[in-house]
Amino acid sequence: MFRVPEKEPRAPNACLGPVSTQGPDSNYGDGLERECSRKSTQKLPELYGVGDPTATFSCDSSHLSSRGRVIKWFWDSAEEGYRAYRMDEYDEEKNPHGIVNLGTSENKLCFDLLSKRLSQSDMLQVEPSLLQYPDWRGHLFLREEVARFLSFYCKSPVPLKPENVVVLNGCASLFSALATVLCEAGEAFLIAAPYYGAITQHVYLYGNVRLVCVYLDSEVTGQDTRPFQLSVEKLEMALQGADSEGVKVKGLILINPQNPLGDIYSPEELREYLEFARRHGLHVVVDEVYMLSVFEESLGYHSVLSLERLPDPQRTHVMWATSKDFGMSGLRFGTLYTENQDVATAVASLCRYHGLSGLVQYQMARLLQDHDWINQVYLPENHARLKAAHTYVAGELQALGIPFLNRGAGFFIWADLRKYLPEATFEEEMLLWHRFLDNKVLLSFGKAFECKEPGWFRLVFSDKAHRLRLGMQRVRQVLQGTSQVAEDPPFCQAQEQRDQHR
Ligand SMILES: Cc1ncc(COP(=O)(O)O)c(C=O)c1O
Q: What are the b/e assignments for 175-200, b being 16+ CB within 10 Å?
């Protein structure tokens, strides 16, 4: 399997290294000590790869436990670009030569609508129960609202039930909680790669759970109808591969709409993946955090909760959050829907550490209840703005002759920059990424999503027109070899004002 040289900066969310020798019963610390010293010689597998998030980390603090060192290592090696961005953030007036962030998947298009709605008087309630210890699953009034919200927006055939809902502070915590309560240490989830790479650490840091990547190809072959297509055959092969390496797979993670591809699964595909999981007794964690960010209406998104019948309801666990669909990644609200009461209770038990303040629970209930505002104001405007931003970036890429996946969901475009790599290696991918960063535009490189083909990049488009234009100008400069820190062109401001009054 591919390994980045130890000195090379890289995201920590890569699925690296050989199968761990750490068995489920082994002591956490012992296992990690072994990981510290191991060197891998394995080559990139064609079809699957058993992840080992700790394969290259260096232990450098005597103050920390072995577990603490791994956790710190993830932080240290994480998000080099994001840290650079935080120190030199672009600001139209105060720092016009700062870094434009087209790397972080956030929706910055609708703050005006959100701040107006969240500032209304019905949002603030102070009463004793909201200031006291809550039910760790979440206040009943909120779980009732979440159940109604999901029933409506997921188009569930029967009303969803509040007792199947747990609320907590975002999907990252939920990945961590589910991994911990569903798997033994050392066990794994299957996941199609490329995928939102931070899941590697979400499932690993507390749960010591790993990911088995089902590597997808950009080339359309065999039964495929689109690039990077997941199929049951590929899932079967990855499962067999993990099994042959002695890795116990406990579940399958599906991201729908997919990050970074922007693909959405058809009901038939969903059913096939769920049937595959049922045949093998696997849990399925379905991440629908972008479900309301399908801005191309004709695509007809289907939530897993809209299916007439789930093949294995006791092993199907759905997550959603306001982080993406409501552009509130800093508010930290997420929810689990599962019919499995043991799973709901175990996750709720961890909500003692991941719970939400009573006041935020109240606000979220008010927000989710307001279907009129969501349907008539927020969603139409959000979708129109996402579509306009997508159209702009897609047009820029087309003008540059860059192939990309033209999808209608999510906040990002998955672009093929392979022709800009002198050699098809992840080192060259990283060098290109550095050139973007040096030219003050932050993108995400494919390796961070565990893409097996070097040269793919994710560009986030859900930002205001002036930043998007400047970011794309800097991207163009790098690709055309004319890079230097660009001035914010004067027309951007006027354009921005026009866009805002559209
Ligand atoms: C697919 C996916 N799932 C989960 C998350 C994390 O969500 P949250 O901010 O609610 O923790 C992200 C964030 O980028 C994501 O892209």
A: bbbbbbbbbebbbbbbbbbbbbbbbb
Let me know: does 303 contact 154? Beta carbons within 8 Å: yes
* CA pair distance 455, 262, nearest whole angstrom: 18
pLDDT digits (tens, 9 = 90+) for 244-278: 999 999 999 999 999 999 999 999 999 999 999 99
Domain that holds residue 162: 126-371
Instruction: Report how far ligand 1's centroid is from the alpha carbon of 381 (Å).
Output: 22
Q: Is 169 in the pocket of ligand 1 (CB under 6 A)?
A: no
Is residue 144, in this structure, part of any structural domain at all? yes
pLDDT digits (tens, 9 = 90+) for 112-122: 999 999 999 99
Q: Is residue 481 part of a domain?
A: no
Q: Is the CB of 335 under 6 A from ligand 1?
A: no
Cα(8)–Cα(251) distance, rounded to whole angstroms?
Answer: 32
**Average pLDDT value for residue range 312-324:** 98
Give yes or no for a contact between 148 and 364, defined as CB atoms under 8 angstroms apart: no
Rounded to the nearest angstrom, the distance between the alpha carbon of 334 and the centre of ligand 1 is 10
Q: Separation of 171 CA from ligand 1 center, angstroms?
A: 6
Residue range 447-458: average pLDDT?
97
DSSP structure class, residue 53: T
Look at residue 311 and tell me if it is in a domain: yes
Q: Is 287 in the pocket of ligand 1 (CB under 6 A)?
A: yes
Q: Does residue 134 have a cis bond before it (omega within 30 degrees)?
A: no
Q: How far, in Å, is the centroid of ligand 1 from the Cα of 319?
A: 10
- Counting the structural domains of the chain, the total is 1
Binding site membership of 105 for ligand 1 (Cβ less than 6 Å): yes
CA of residue 289 to ligand 1 center, whole Å: 7
394 lines ligand 1 (CB under 6 A): no
CATH number at residue 342: 3.40.640.10
Report pLDDT digits (tens) over 143-187.
999 999 999 999 999 999 999 999 999 999 999 999 999 999 999
Q: What is the pTM of this model?
A: 0.89
Within 8 A by CB and 6+ apart from 8, the residues are 427, 430
Which residue lies with its CA nearest to atom 15 of ligand 1? 196
* Cβ(321) – ligand 1 distance below 6 Å: yes
Average pLDDT, the chain: 88
Residue nearest ligand 1's atom 13 by CA = 105
Is residue 450 one of the residues assigned to a domain? no
What's the pLDDT tens digit per position in 20-30? 323 322 222 22
Q: What's the 377 CA to ligand 1 centre distance in angstroms?
A: 24
